[in-house]
Amino acid sequence: MAGTNSERTMIAEGPVVILVNPQLGENIGMVARAMANFGLAELRLVDPRDGWPSETARAAASKADHVIDGARVFDRLEDAIADLNFVYATTARSRDGFKPVRGPTVAARTLRQRFTAGERTGILFGRERWGLSNEEVALADEIVTFPVNPAFASLNIAQAVLLMSYEWMKSGMADEAETPFQAVEQTPATKEDLFGFFGHLEDALDARGYFRPADKRPRMIENLRSVFTRRAMSLQEIHVLRGVISSFDRYRRKENDDND
Amino acid sequence: MAGTNSERTMIAEGPVVILVNPQLGENIGMVARAMANFGLAELRLVDPRDGWPSETARAAASKADHVIDGARVFDRLEDAIADLNFVYATTARSRDGFKPVRGPTVAARTLRQRFTAGERTGILFGRERWGLSNEEVALADEIVTFPVNPAFASLNIAQAVLLMSYEWMKSGMADEAETPFQAVEQTPATKEDLFGFFGHLEDALDARGYFRPADKRPRMIENLRSVFTRRAMSLQEIHVLRGVISSFDRYRRKENDDND
């Protein structure tokens, strides 16, 4: 999809993503891609195992070059978050200590509020094998953790970054039901439109002797109308259905002409 | 984390995930892992390019073996969804047609309601390169699409499945602010606890001549107290702080003993 994006708004703002001791370049790349998908841009790496820059990371980033190129490397976590005002630590494990524990939706809303107020914020993600140490978590203001299957909790860092980035994007939407594109605009049908359709259908069926025997007619009409009133139809849908009836009503089945 | 999971509840229910023409075994494996993380279990593959079973898929699934082992392969999408009642199609592109377009939160809530009502549901994900065809989308009841960075929309199928699975998990939570573990339980401090702490601190400082000159004392006390009333403290936090004061108050700095 990236090919047709040149004229579209590039969102690149919000919390800094800080990866502590990331091991695989591929994971760093997938983190960059996840960030770019949801409008985050600032990536910091604390002591990446295989060094930096990394061609593996760039390849896995699927053209999120602005994130890869802007990534900064630090020796110590303390330095990587020195300029920030508020930091979340992500962890899957309960920790001793007084730090508040939030779900991703609440954490994203908090980050959005602080961002809007002009604060610099960040989210820490631990190493692939065992996450963040207690000392690293202690440097953060609050903890964020994901609701996962108790018997299968194996989110990797790229997945964790994806979820937080996604929640960040959602936290900026006026309404979470909002979608980037909508269904084709339709006009709700009035009852008059609907009754016109009923008349068309019933007339066409009547002409074929559909309503037989005569004493069953009221019930048959009732059932027929029920099918089409289960949900409010649009005018466009009624037009489609009237086209169908006209087709049945006016034209004969071509391949059966001989047998009619 | 999977090693300590044996005694924990394995969640394995909810919508079927249907991948149409998936190309890379690795992506199928990451889909299985994402599903398992958020409690989904039923995977169907329509005409996977590299055949099935796939060792690449199993390796990438990170022990989500129950999803891989249970995966079923179909030649046609129609057969893969034949037994379902309600199906979403995921797409990043606007389509012509009357189908309602939903965001992931609303879609997950709809799937949860139908699941609770006993319906069989599914979510379609398209091929890596170009998603679902219009004909495939037409087989679904509604469309679901993700809020993404307009200038960088490159979610892969594993990421899309992760987000829908995550929203599915959240849709089953009584409260989205719920977290799998909580901060250490703390008792909110009463004002009496707080005033006791103020007395302790101010007495220790007073003994050192901290409040000088005397006419600044009220303002200095006011500022000091402000620091500790910006947020409601817990009793545990007050205990920590009183320990700090006691330590300063009772003991001298060891390495400086000679100079004191």
TrEMBL record, chains A, B:
Main location per the UniProt record: cytoplasm
Keywords from the UniProt entry: Cytoplasm, Methyltransferase, S-adenosyl-L-methionine, Transferase, tRNA processing
Classification lineage: Bacteria, Pseudomonadati, Pseudomonadota, Alphaproteobacteria, Hyphomicrobiales
Catalytic activity field: uridine(32) in tRNA + S-adenosyl-L-methionine = 2'-O-methyluridine(32) in tRNA + S-adenosyl-L-homocysteine + H(+); cytidine(32) in tRNA + S-adenosyl-L-methionine = 2'-O-methylcytidine(32) in tRNA + S-adenosyl-L-homocysteine + H(+)
Its EC number(s): 2.1.1.200
Homology family: Belongs to the class IV-like SAM-binding methyltransferase superfamily. RNA methyltransferase TrmH family.
Subunit structure: Homodimer.
GO molecular function terms noted in the UniProt entry: RNA binding; tRNA (cytidine(32)-2'-O)-methyltransferase activity; tRNA (cytidine(32)/uridine(32)-2'-O)-methyltransferase activity
Compartments in which it is found: Cytoplasm
InterPro entries documented for this protein: Alpha/beta_knot_MTases (IPR029028), RNA_MeTrfase_TrmJ/LasT (IPR004384), SpoU_MeTrfase (IPR001537), tRNA_m1G_MTases_N (IPR029026)
Purpose of the protein: Catalyzes the formation of 2'O-methylated cytidine (Cm32) or 2'O-methylated uridine (Um32) at position 32 in tRNA.
Domain of life: Bacteria
GO biological process, any: tRNA nucleoside ribose methylation
Record domain tRNA/rRNA methyltransferase SpoU type: where: 16-166
EC supergroup of this enzyme: transferase
Gene Ontology cellular component terms for the protein in this record: cytosol
Protein name stated in the entry: tRNA (cytidine/uridine-2'-O-)-methyltransferase TrmJ
